[in-house]
Design goal:
This protein has 685 residues and is α+β, with helices and mostly antiparallel strands. The protein is 32% helix and 29% strand. The protein has 3 domains: 213 residues, Beta-galactosidase, Chain A, domain 5 (Distorted Sandwich), CATH 2.70.98; 361 residues, Alpha/alpha barrel (Glycosyltransferase), CATH 1.50.10.10; 50 residues, no CATH class. It is globular.
Length: 685
């Protein structure tokens, strides 16, 4: 009797501890926006007394990437650093970072005069004597960075300064528009500048490369009241400096604007939350612009001043390529196919691991962290892409890679039934043991997709059944091997001897494994893991990587904790879009200074496609839709979706009671399924 009472008492204590732990959801801090959404979908910072402030942004075209660091001091005087990367102009030896890149500072600009007074751009050069200072009034982002400024305290001249990459040339442009706002004529002049540097012949790949900084439309203009003049500085690379390189800044800007509009037109999100709508639209820009035209075709690259004309098994194969199958961007889908083809070229009959990365336009590889679970990443991404893209011919091209990667993973299964790997996508920055949760969950989802894909390709039934059985087995073994109580939460240990909470415990949720969803969600949103910038990589550490936060938000939505997820999604989106470092998802901190690596933006978009709308591909023309409509929303729409071989809209609307209407509109014809909130509609297009 005493033993029973003691057991009951211990059970009660454990229940109280569990309830106490689970009730510790993070209180989200108040946010003070620096930026504001504009009617045209851009964001603007109207510079006020919250100074000084500095930030950076990256913008990319097919042959160039422009990183702009900007700062406004307490007097409103701005300074800019331009870092221009030319991904296909390479040096030797071949490696990840063998592209050429050059920095350009404000003090290298040609001198500009307004009525014979020098316009100064540097913070260190205050307006004094007969000089004028470039005083920034606002900054705007929407694929082009625009700075609105005044020329000092007395000159009746307004200045618009625009920075952007060329869409298809190895060139970045900085354009100045001077407008006379006074009642008398004003003379504006820009000195002619031409500066060139040529790389070392012995170290240059193919031939020496020349980088040129030069003025366009330089000279003197007399502006009558209300009139404007345009000057520009361009930064370009060439292997033939003796040949003319004509530049039309206006035409280049128009092409950039058209490219942004083309990215924005398909796959439009419409919800009652303008922050989510705008953040989604911006994420599409960053995810899609960072595709470089290489000698191997279009290749998506992370960017960040380091990663260009190269692909990774996580960033490209796992994160962003499945997004491109929904995006409606032809360049994006070409980059996805090229990514998978390039990895497939390294398949081998011995089943040695594929490289983690193929770099230098496909001429070299990187596998410095060994097998990071790359085969699981590739099989997961390629199988989801193939199903979503909806084209049998493309799927047949990808199938040998998918099946090879699955077989590789099968050969790495240990005695406890889980897949081993030497590291994970963090490449040893944090411990991952001999077998990690991420690799195994990716392998599970890849098997699920491969089962459906093999059916679409009419492969032998035994092969299909083997994949289905393997998926069931690995799901069971994930629970046995990784399922654990960690820090009071019924969740997962990331590897066998792990005893601290890790951000990647979110991966099972994103892969449709909900056995421990309650405890996992509580752990993710607890003060132990959630920080002001999203998930800490490990509890108690300051390091964060946005990719885990993005997976977590998607996974929590998929698991059905909709309103809880939306609070954190809105907070995160507002911070990234309108806060201190804008307007995109970032890579990490403290590593990389929160650079805007592009595949993370693809993951952001997938929160909505796969999480909020619950779209899970099941065939070339079919998908499951498990929508997660927040309680305070009446409807939400994802329109102009290019996927499953067609174009369609998905609208989710709340009916009376607990019913939800799922309406699919294709070619003007609408079909509606009425389901219970939380149920799945099986859609065939």
């Amino acid at each position: 009797m005493k033993i029973l009472k003691k057991k009951a008492f211990l059970a009660l204590i454990l229940l109280i501890v569990r309830l106490t732990v689970y009730s510790q959801q993070t209180t989200l801090p108040e946010q003070k926006d620096r930026w504001a959404i504009q009617p045209d979908g851009s964001i603007t910072w109207n510079i006020n007394n919250r100074l000084p402030h500095s930030d950076h942004i990256e913008m990319s075209g097919e042959k160039v990437s422009l990183w702009v660091g900007y700062r406004v001091d307490s007097a409103g005087i701005s300074s800019i650093t331009r870092k221009v990367v030319f991904p296909t102009f390479r040096m030797l030896p071949d490696d990840t970072r063998s592209h050429i890149a050059y920095n350009f500072q404000d003090n290298e600009l040609p001198r500009i005069y307004i009525d014979n007074k020098l316009l100064k751009f540097e913070i260190s050069q205050r307006e004094q004597g007969g000089d004028l200072a470039f005083v920034a009034k606002s900054i705007n982002h929407h694929g082009v960075m625009r700075i609105m400024a005044e020329a000092g305290k007395s000159a009746p001249v307004k200045i618009e300064r625009a920075l952007f990459p060329s869409v298809d040339k190895p060139m970045a442009i900085e354009k100045f528009i001077f407008t006379n706002t006074g009642s008398k004529p004003v003379t504006v002049s820009m000195e002619k500048l031409y500066r060139a540097v040529t790389t070392d012949t012995l170290r240059s790949k193919s031939s020496p490369h020349t980088v040129v900084m030069k003025t366009v439309n330089d000279g003197s203009r007399v502006l009558q009241p209300g009139r404007s003049a345009v000057f520009a500085v361009c930064y370009f690379a060439t292997d033939h400096p003796e040949q003319p390189f004509p530049v039309d800044p206006g035409a280049e800007e128009n092409e950039r604007i058209k490219r942004i509009a083309k990215i924005q037109s398909p796959l439009q999100l419409e919800t009652p939350d303008s922050i989510l709508n705008t953040a989604f639209a911006f994420a599409k820009i960053r995810a899609t612009e960072s595709i470089f035209k290489t000698k191997r075709g279009y290749l998506h690259g992370p960017g960040g001043l380091e990663y260009y004309a190269a692909i990774w098994a996580n960033d490209q194969a796992e994160y962003v390529s499945p997004y491109f199958a929904f995006s409606g961007d032809s360049i994006g889908t070409m980059s996805a196919m090229n990514c998978y083809r390039l990895f497939a070229s390294y398949m081998n009959p011995e089943y040695n691991a594929l490289p983690s990365s193929v770099v230098a336009e496909g001429d070299a590889i990187w596998k410095g962290a060994g097998d990071r679970g790359d085969q699981a990443m590739i099989a997961y991404g390629a199988s989801r892409f193939a199903l979503t893209y909806g084209k049998a011919d493309s799927a047949k091209v990808l199938w040998p890679l998918i099946s090879w990667c699955l077989e590789y993973c099968r050969r790495q299964i240990n005695d406890q039934g889980v897949v081993t790997s030497q590291s994970d996508e963090l490449e040893g920055r944090f411990p991952s043991g001999k077998a990690n949760l991420s690799t195994n969950c990716l392998y599970y989802d890849a098997l699920v997709s491969a089962t459906m894909l093999a059916g679409q390709l009419r492969l032998p039934k035994k092969q299909i059944e083997d994949y289905r059985a393997s998926a069931s087995a690995i799901k069971l073994n994930i629970e046995k091997y990784f399922g654990a109580n960690v820090a009071g939460f019924d969740t997962y240990k990331y590897y066998e001897t792990n005893n601290t909470l890790r951000a990647w415990i979110c991966v099972p949720l994103a892969m449709g494994i909900y056995d421990r969803s309650e405890g996992t969600i509580a752990a993710l949103f607890s003060p132990q893991l959630w920080t002001a910038d999203g998930l800490a990589t490990e509890a108690g550490k300051e390091t964060f990587w946005d990719r885990s936060t993005l997976y977590a938000l998607r996974g929590v939505l998929q698991a059905g904790a909709t309103d809880q997820a939306m609070d954190f999604l809105h907070y995160y989106s507002r911070r990234r879009l309108l806060g201190e470092h804008v307007p995109y998802a970032v890579e990490a901190y403290p590593e990389g200074s929160q650079r805007h690596l592009s595949a993370e933006s693809g993951l952001y978009c997938r929160i909505f496609i796969e999480g909020l709308f619950g779209i899970r591909p099941t065939g070339f023309n079919s998908f499951n839709c498990t929508p997660r409509l927040p309680k305070n929303w009446k409807q939400m729409t994802l329109s102009n979706i290019h996927a499953f071989g067609t174009v369609f809209d998905v609208e989710i609307a709340r009916m009376n009671g607990e019913k939800v209407a799922v309406t699919i509109t294709k070619a003007g014809i609408a079909h509606t399924d009425i389901i219970n909130d939380g149920e799945t509609a099986k859609i065939k297009l």
